[in-house]
Amino acid sequence: MSSTAMVTAPPSGCVISSVIRREHQISFTTLGQVHGRRDSELIDPLHSAGPLTHEVVASLLDPPDGGIVADLGAGLGNFTALLEQSGYNVIAVDIDEDDYREAGHSSAPFVVANLDQALPELPGPLTGAVAIEVIEHLENPLHFLRSVADGLVEGGWLIVTTPNVLSLSSRLEFLVRGDDFQFSDADYRDNGHISPVSGKQLDRIASRVGLVIEATTYNVGRIPLPQLRKRVLLRGDWARSQLLGEALIVKFRKRQDSAEPFTRG
Q: Has residue 263 been placed in a domain?
């Protein structure tokens, strides 16, 4: 099983269908700031992800090296645009090109794909990829991660974010209502959340598909009380933990020789 390193990223989503765009909206800082650029006019559009999720993902990115980076579940292209304007050779991958073009945030190439199926043919192997608030919408997370791993170069990286179903908020939600956090009937109906995935599950999947977990962190903390959870953000590093973190953020590295044999019972 791969080892998991807990990191703290500086406090500084992409979607696969229109239904997901009803999730909460926030603003965020630019990738240019993270990588030391002085660009002050990088776009700052609204996007579907939790508070500070994009900033934390940005802090985990490998520096641009000219290789292809895929924004999987690119939606309207908000994060795609930030990658593009920060020097990455990025392509957007999603199911609806019309919405992406109409939004006009990014001019990066777009590849139409249903991420519940295998990745489509891309211009070349991937140096890296991001899947922000995507995996919880997919029917088969293991199949998705295997497909992405197959498309990465050796040593390539992948960053995935998803609701933290092991937080105190989620555990209390399950105890009281029988649903994981962000996987209620309303989340299923309005946001298309169908696949809760924990950090332990991601570690197990990684060991089967030739990935190792390089870093695990969270976006912000939430107080596990219904009346305060949506109104109070805990931004300190101490709050960005498994018990309080709202979104789980995991960075993988492709190490083909790390794949472990798996025997079904």
A: no
